[in-house]
């Protein structure tokens, strides 16, 4: 399994792949809210919603995941906002992503 080593000071979402040849993507979370859609995550992946599959947002120093897909295909099982922890794995469509919490996010506001 290939993984990207993220910057420990910035929260990010990191693609996880079992395919050793696939280029992996890292999405730095530099704003308080990020809409996760096909264009941002993987433009070639039709299993991810074009209009916003899920959103990540920061509240009181923690990150939360909220499902936006009408087909409810965002996993961690999300029926309400969920507090994320470093290392949580999220399945959207047929793609896996790992949430990595940046050290500075615990003590400062989002940039």
TrEMBL record:
Residues 45-93 form the FHA domain. It holds the Pfam family FHA. This is FHA domain-containing protein. It comes from Cesiribacter andamanensis AMV16.
